[in-house]
Amino acid sequence: MSGTELNGGGQAEAVAKAGPAGGASFLKGVAFDQQMIVLLLFAAIFLAFSLLLPGFFTVGNLLTLMRTVSVLGILGLGMAVVVIGRGIDLSMIASLAVPSAVVLMLASKDYGIATSLLCGVSLAVAIGVLNGFLVAYAEIPSLFTTLAVGIGIAGIGQSGLFEYEIVPWPAQLAAISWIGQGSLLGIPYSVLAFIAAAIIVGIFMRKTRLGAFIYASGDNPNAARIAGIPVRPILMLQYIIAGLVAMFAGLVLSASSSSMDTRIFNLTWIYDVILVVVLGGIGLSGGRGGVINVIIGTLLIGTIVNGMTIMNVSFEMQNLIKGVVLLAALSIDSIVNPRNEETAQQGDI
Amino acid sequence: MSNTLTKLRYRYWPDHVFGELLQKQWMETAVPLLVLLLTIAFFSSRIDNFISVANLSDTLRQASELGFVVLGMSLVLIVGGIDLSVASVFALCNLTALYCINVLGLPTPAVIALTLLLGAVLGAVNGVLIGYMRMRAFLTTMVTLIVYKAIHDLLNFQLAVAISSVVPDVPAWDFLGNGDFLSIPTVVWVFAIVAIASHIFLTRLRPGWYVMAIGGNRRSAYNIGLPVNRVVAMSYMASGVFAATSAIFYASRLASPGADTGKGLEITVLTAAILGGIRLGGGKGSVTKAVLGTLIILIITNGLLRLATPAGAARLILATILLLAATLDIRWFKNRHKAVQELYVSPSYLELPQSPPTGASSPFALNDRLRAVEQIGLGEVESPEDVILDREDNLYCGSRHGEIIRFFAPDYKRMEVYARIGGQPLGMAFDAGGTLFVCVGGMGLYRVNPDRTVEKVTDETNRSLLSVVDDSRLRLADDLDIAPDGRIFFSEATIRYEMHEWPTDSLEGRGNGRIICYDPRSGKTHTVLRHLIFPNGVVLASDKESIIFAESWNCSIKRHWFAGAKEGTTETVIASLPGYPDNINVSSDGNYWLALMGMRSPAFDLAMRKPAFRRRMSKRLPGDEWLAPNINTGCIVKFNEKGEILDALWDLGGLNHPMITSMREHKGYLYIGGISNNRIGRIKLEGADPEFVSSGRYNV
Q1: Residue of B496 and A175 predicted with greater confidence
Q2: Are residues B651 and B510 in the same domain?
Q3: A134 exposed, middle or buried (CB, 10 Å; 0-12, 13-18, 19+)?
Q4: CA A87 to CA A347: how far, in whole Å?
Q5: Average pLDDT over all residues of chain A
Q6: Which residues of A touch B219 (CB under 8 A)?
Q7: Per-residue pLDDT at B86 exceeds 90
Q8: Among residues A42, A271, A294, B88, which is most buried (max CB within 10 A)?
Q9: Does the structure show a pLDDT above 90 at B19?
Q10: Is the pLDDT of residue A13 over 80?
Q11: If you average pLDDT over each of A280-284, B9-13, B627-631, B670-674, which comes out highest?
Q12: Distance between CA atoms of B447 and B455, rounded to whole angstroms?
């Protein structure tokens, strides 16, 4: 009885896989995968904007473009780690805002750079541990966990922890304010920070054992568990990495804008991050993609946003357009990476 | 002293009820109800006038508005998804309704229809994406939340001034938001009707069952041919309509096109649904839970507001509650069966009288008289719990495979399957017409007519008044006898366990069994005696007005009068046996044969006086390492109605016929059955009536 059922399931899966696989073989000659599509799309949009939008293809604007998306890119790197591990972290904006604001506040009260940073890092790690624990051990779906944790952390930020809702960059942190403000050989440090973070995350994911474990447990958690990978600690590690990356992004952001707005927590930001990751070609079903996808996604989003800003599109309209693009990206994702009902978790929404 | 306390505690504290309560479906709703009462109590103690009539009416108005959205969210959660876009759908519908009534000046019904249509369309977008394109519910609805919100903001920017500058005077419209009917707000009436309709939909109608089935297991639902995609899509559409309904009342009440309309609504609604006990991941939930969750969340948010909690702290509290509820929900769902299992077994205090001696001078004196037993059908039968012979001397027994086996007289070498029943046959009795009545474990009382057709006689009795679980079904009908008027008296050994779980029942030692009577004249079944400790063998006494029955774990024999002068009374015949009594049957000299399926041991007797010890054992050890009564070695005894032991037959080596659960005297021989045996035994009885036939003796 159960044998027939298994067979039936296997066949259904084989049929389900035949569609995309057949499509892939048809297009194999030109390596026409999502990464390529997005790259071509980016090139086309970039070219179109360069030709049609006055003031787009200038060194100044391109540097602005890079600088505006560098924070988004850093966040995308953190999100990528979690998404590759078959999760999602919606609390990243909260862990961008609150720990870095804590660093600014402590530094302004003369606690010293090291102590302040240590406190901020501890808070970021704590958020990651909380997320990871709830996802790995309490087995709450990650979307749900991180949404609630994000709201909670933002709540902490808004409930009198800080004197003002906008925490200014204090003079005591002048020694590290270059990460958001200065430039090296004409390239802003924030862009360099993105590049540095990309290299570190890239090496971690591709060259270390832990990175391989994240890929394995994202690809098939049950198989990873059977193979002896400590899946639950690995899950926690992902959220800790995401928290730390978010805090780094927060420091870059606050250094470049000389303050940290703790009201930053709202959904539109996090969905820019998801947009970067999904557009770049990291499948939400886990185990696929890497740093390069984040970079491509970041460039595409940066170009679109920059172009729309030059065209003077209103904020709401930008949200609308980005939302529709994300919806399209998600539907393509669900067609290219169909969900495997055999390994999908109960309650995986 | 402490012994008395233990006795009293186990006599009056209903341990077994807790495990049974946990199994009830309505327990899941009882938890949010309790949380609701606690929440009300907490805020009433902190805030003066928290509950007043004016306040209550206002709270109900808000609760109904929120309740519509929660109902929609619950429907989507039950089908296995989630709908975050409700907040933006709500905002957009609010704006639309206000624009239609204030600026366009449409009549109220048209406004309602248009707004509901908009809600349906917005929901349908989600439905198509998630139901048909199989996209992830959470991300998809999160994006539609943002897209709809962006549309709302764009429109609001252009329309807000136009809407605010007109104050329409439409009584029907105002009645929706601010009107009362019988001093209860309109919205509450509408919500009550919708909630009741939704309840009927989910629990009584086919589409509602589809929703539950798909949420429970999407793949199975697909495999049995349910229209999974369509049902999922329709749920999202329904969610949109519910949000629109809520928005209509909200628009009518406040008439404000604010930019922040519906902000954070999705979190509130989700928290309400989860707090009410609707499961993330689908398959479980009800309208009652949705309503309870709504009330809880509304009282918490209103209470926090009245306590002047800062917005950030309120969000923190809400998020914490949400996570706690989700954790509890998920952990509980995963471990519920373990908790039930641990709590279900509830040993009680059972003090048995001193075991009578079995020494050489006692009536139970050991001997080897059963060593000479002949074996019938060795290796051909399994588990012949009871044996019986008909007037033609054919021998019948039950088998583990759910059959009645017949061995043909005179030599019992040849056998056949007399009837297939499907469950393990236990006690058997022939009536005068040759119909064989059989107690079948797990099934009830059955009969095999002389033409070999099998019919159910009864499988249920009247439910006891105060039982937590429905105890009307028969779980372990055990032995029976037939009264002269045709009434059948049979024992049900336990109502708490299945047949194979009898060792667990022995561990409880509580009066879980009962004697039941089936009356063929009325076709009715009713319970005669309750709270018996594993009632087993039943036989009609010589006065034909009473039955004699055995209580196995109580090691006693009792007699109950069902007619005559002593009708309704019960007396003890033998208070203490050295073993566990099983079937009882008549002997040719007017006395009774009794099988002892196993002998008592001091250790087990002591354990029966230590309920806490047995409870620890049942929780900490796997089932096959639990203490259990010995049923390897037993004997057959003969007793009379005064309770005197007249004879005892043993087999000390236990080689030829170990394990005895029944015996039947027939024409000078005693036939022996045993539930864990693979044979039937036969022994010649010296001096017995060679013409004695036990079957159908008293029937007219």
Answers
A1: B496
A2: yes
A3: buried
A4: 13
A5: 79
A6: 9, 341
A7: yes
A8: A294
A9: no
A10: no
A11: B670-674
A12: 5
Burial class (CB in 10 A: 0-12, 13-18, 19+), B41: exposed
* Residues of B whose CB is below 8 A from A323: 143-144, 146-147, 150
Pairing of strands A259-261, B546-551: unpaired
pLDDT at B615 over 50: yes
Q: Do B62 and B298 contact (CB within 8 A), yes or no?
A: yes
When divided into structural domains, chain B yields a total of: 2
Interface contact flag, B312 A145, Cβ < 8 Å: no
Instruction: Specify the CATH number for the domain of residue B128.
Output: 1.10.3470
Q: Which is more confident, A99 or B29?
A: A99
pLDDT band at A33 (very low <50, low <70, confident <90, very high): low
- How many CB atoms are located within 10 Å of the residue A39 CB? 17
B140 touches chain A (CB under 8 A): yes
Interface of B with A in 293-322 (CB under 8 A): 310-320, 322
Q: Are residues B528 and B646 in the same domain?
A: yes
CB-based contact B280 A159, cutoff 8 Å: no
φ/ψ of residue A289, rounded to 5: 90, 180
- Judged by CB atoms closer than 8 Å, whether chains meet at B323 and A284 is answered as no
Query: Is residue B442, in this structure, part of any structural domain at all?
Result: yes
Tens digit of each residue's pLDDT (9 = 90 or more) over A187-240: 778 888 888 999 999 999 989 999 999 999 988 888 888 999 999 999 999 999
Residue A14: band (very low, low, confident or very high) from pLDDT cuts 50, 70, 90: very low
Task: Give me the domain span that covers residue B526.
Answer: 369-462+471-684
Q: Given an 8 Å threshold on Cβ–Cβ distance, is B144 in contact with A317?
A: no
Cβ–Cβ below 8 Å for A138 and B331: yes
Instruction: List, as one string, the DSSP characters of B267-332.
Output: HHHHHHHHHHTPPTTSS---HHHHHHHHHHHHHHHHHHHHTT--HHHHHHHHHHHHHHHHHHHHHH
Cβ–Cβ of B310/A338 closer than 8 Å? no
Query: Which chain B residues are Cβ-neighbours of A155 within 8 angstroms?
Result: 312-319
Query: Which of A157, A326, A346 minimises the CB distance to B281?
Result: A346
If asked whether residues B42 and B185 sit together in one domain, one would say yes
CA B259 to chain centroid, in Å, comes to 51
pLDDT for the residue numbered A4: 37
- B337 and B383 fall within a common domain: no
Q: Kindly report the CA angle at B354 between B351 and B358, in degrees rounded to 5?
A: 140
Q: pLDDT-derived band of residue A19, with 50, 70 and 90 as boundaries?
A: very low
Decide if B668 contacts B689 (C-beta within 8 A). Answer: yes
ipTM computed for the complex = 0.74
B479 and B583, same domain (yes or no): yes
Residue range A33-336 in CATH 1.10.3470? yes
Question: Given an 8 Å threshold on Cβ–Cβ distance, is B322 in contact with A148?
Answer: yes
- The mean per-residue pLDDT over the stretch B441-466 comes to 92
> Does residue B699 form part of some domain?
no
Same domain, B396 and B307: no
Measure in Å the smallest separation between the Cα of A14 and chain B Cα atoms: 16
Q: Kindly indicate the confidence band of residue A337, based on its pLDDT and cuts at 50, 70 and 90.
A: low
Q: How many angstroms separate the CA of residue B203 from the nearest CA in chain A? A: 22
Q: Where are the domains of chain A?
A: 1-31, 33-336
Within-domain flag for B254: yes
The CA distance from B535 to the nearest CA of chain A, in Å, is 39
For the cut 50, the answer to whether the pLDDT of residue B608 exceeds it is yes
Flag whether B694 is in a domain.
Answer: no
> Which residue bears the tokens 């099988």?
B595
Same domain, B486 and B589: yes
Q: What is the pLDDT of residue A23?
A: 41
pLDDT of residue B518: 96
Q: Which residues in chain B (150-179) have CB-CB distances under 8 A to chain A?
A: 150-151, 153-154, 157
Share of chain B above pLDDT 70, in %: 99
Give the best residue of A127, A146, A159 to mutate against chain B (max B CB count within 10 A). A159
Q: Which residue has the higher pLDDT, A163 or B196?
A: B196
Contact A155 B313 (CB under 8 A): yes
